[in-house]
Amino acid sequence: MSDNDTRNAAPGQVRLAAGDTEVTVDPANGCRLASLRIGGTEVLRQGAKYGSFPMVPWCGRIKEGQFRNGGEVHQMPVNSPPHAIHGTGRDVAWKTARADATSAAFTYELLDPDAAPWPYPGRVTQLVELAEDGGSLTLTMGVEASGDSFPAQAGWHPWFLRRLGEEGERSEDVRIDFSAAWQEERGEDHLPTGRRIDPRPGPWDDCFGMPDGVDVTLTWPDRLELKVTSRAEWVVVYDEQEAAVCVEPQSGPPNGLNTMPRLVTPIDPLEISTTWIWRTLA
């Protein structure tokens, strides 16, 4: 057995534990967080498509699956017609580079033949770090180019349960609180129109701008308060499903490979982090 405790993890999964918190990472399934249990209570929606997955090398939708790099136009698989959505990283097996009791690092190659086609070589790394007291979790992702430069984004798509606890003992619905400088106006095609508008009340499937960094608080009354922070300036909030809500810190807005490209070069990688910190309310 490796140094990390895998008693409650399926084969190939990595379990981190500290205090009363347990985090399970599934590198074979897009390196997603398969579980986050705080005080014995699951916080993330369960299922192969859920948990919390990394969005890389782009976040949200790319218009019609196409992006331009210089004079070249590249076509990504249209997996959410008529657009491509959420990158290739969630669909490929990552390698575990190292793991101990409270942290682990994972990688995948952008040209991995099992991933959806991406035209540029490079490597993605995700670091998962659970605080020694079990009171917070930090995720860090890096995108490196090993050849030509290319536009890229990175972020996370957590599915937080709308209500915590078992059937019959579930909490009230989660409350989402934040203050944004603007909201990206969403067109009928679900892409930003390019106009920044005053933030509107939910329900949301929308991108918000936070130039001082992402800061969103989820509160399950009398159960748990969890704060999602990041130095990144964009967050997508999605609360249109019954079972779960999403707070997605990311390095740029949807369709940003086209509208706000951030070039990754061999000497200038992309790096983004998010920290989730929580406290019980019971």
UniProtKB/TrEMBL annotation:
This is Aldose 1-epimerase. SUPFAM superfamilies: Galactose mutarotase-like. InterPro entries: Aldose_1/G6P_1-epimerase, Gal_mutarotase_sf_dom, GH-type_carb-bd. GO terms for biological process: carbohydrate metabolic process. One of its GO terms (molecular function) is isomerase activity. Gene3D superfamilies: 2.70.98.10. It holds the Pfam family Aldose_epim.
